[in-house]
């Protein structure tokens, strides 16, 4: 597709009435998009302010920023709030500034609604996601066994590195627990970064893997305790990646993560609340005193 580099940051859609009337910016039939600001390749001759058939723009978006959210969600360049969050928390904040800028240049922001599935176990190869806001459920298990909750990821966490590292389908599932904003670094962009600097790019992406393996190792260790209250408290500490922010998890899901029943979770949370360790709300728990909760876990080992 010939053309100059463009980024579609804003657009207008006009619909043609069945009577044949058209707006000043629309072609005679169907939808059109007025290009306001761009940095994606578009057909030669398209300039700012010119109308482009909507179908053409959708093809451009699919070709250059592949995402599971092609249907109706425009992926846009990382805005200031995404930079502010991901440059201060999590994996990307620990990388060199030049690498951060390269990620922001190649990545796009995706907004998802609670319940949206980002990808499933066994899905085709895809890219990396960083959480700007909201929470995501990580699930494991092939479809015939039903997905099982593994972890709840919050702001600043990254997931989806496996496809880049081993070139195999998704080994976990990812679903929005709440409305969320995600920074999506497509696999094609990761490959281009690796072509420029293979060793350092690989090392940096492996750091995402190691961080997620740390979560698995900690969960395995926590689940070996015979004390259900300790397992529940330990699960809350694993999920408390953003102190001061409520953990978006139901009591049933917390039971899965701690190997206990919903009834046991309900009773434990009441005791924790009475002791000033946590507060609860609908489908969320807030850790009020992480230091004391850690001591509780340690003292009951």
Automatic annotation (TrEMBL):
PROSITE patterns: CNMP_BINDING_3, HTH_CRP_2
Gene3D superfamilies xrefs: Jelly Rolls, Winged helix-like DNA-binding domain superfamily/Winged helix DNA-binding domain
Domain of life where this protein originates: Bacteria
High-level lineage: Bacteria, Pseudomonadati, Pseudomonadota, Alphaproteobacteria, Rhodobacterales
Keyword Kinase set for record: no
Name assigned to this protein: Crp/Fnr family transcriptional regulator
Any GO CC annotation of this UniProt entry: cytosol
One matching Pfam family: cNMP_binding
Keyword flag Membrane: no
InterPro entries reported in the protein's UniProt record: cNMP-bd_dom, cNMP-bd_dom_sf, Env_Response_Regulators, HTH_CRP, RmlC-like_jellyroll, WH-like_DNA-bd_sf, WH_DNA-bd_sf
Alphabetic keyword roster: DNA-binding, Transcription, Transcription regulation
CDD domains: CAP_ED
Gene Ontology MF terms: DNA binding; DNA-binding transcription factor activity
Domain HTH crp-type positions: 226-291
UniProt organism field: Rhodovulum sulfidophilum (Rhodobacter sulfidophilus)
Cyclic nucleotide-binding domain residues: 96-211
């Amino acid at each position: 597709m010939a053309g100059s580099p463009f980024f579609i940051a804003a657009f207008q859609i006009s619909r043609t009435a069945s009577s044949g009337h058209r707006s000043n910016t629309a072609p005679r039939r169907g939808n059109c998009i007025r290009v306001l600001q761009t940095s994606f390749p578009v057909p030669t001759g398209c300039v700012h302010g010119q109308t482009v058939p909507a179908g053409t723009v959708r093809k451009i978006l699919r070709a250059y920023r592949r995402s599971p959210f092609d249907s109706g969600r425009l992926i846009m360049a990382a805005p200031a709030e995404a930079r502010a969050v991901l440059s201060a928390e999590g994996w990307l904040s620990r990388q060199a500034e030049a690498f951060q800028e390269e990620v922001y240049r190649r990545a796009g922001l995706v907004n998802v609604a609670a319940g949206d599935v980002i990808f499933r176990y066994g899905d085709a190869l895809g890219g990396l996601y960083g959480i700007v806001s909201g929470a995501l459920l990580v699930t494991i298990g092939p479809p015939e066994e039903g997905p099982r909750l593994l972890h709840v990821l919050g702001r600043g966490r990254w997931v989806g590195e496996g496809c880049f590292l081993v070139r195999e389908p998704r080994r976990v599932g990812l679903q929005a627990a709440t409305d969320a904003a995600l920074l999506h670094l497509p696999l094609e962009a990761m490959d281009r970064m690796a072509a420029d600097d293979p060793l350092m790019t690989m090392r940096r992406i492996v750091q995402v893997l190691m961080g997620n393996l740390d979560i698995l190792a900690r969960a395995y260790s926590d689940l070996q305790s015979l004390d259900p209250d300790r397992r529940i408290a330990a699960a809350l500490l694993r999920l408390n990646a953003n102190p001061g922010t409520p953990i978006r998890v139901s009591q049933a899901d917390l039971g899965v993560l701690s190997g206990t029943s919903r009834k046991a979770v309900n009773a434990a949370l009441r005791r924790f609340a009475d002791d000033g360790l946590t507060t609860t709300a609908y489908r969320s728990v807030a850790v009020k005193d992480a230091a004391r909760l850690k001591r509780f876990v340690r003292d009951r080992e």
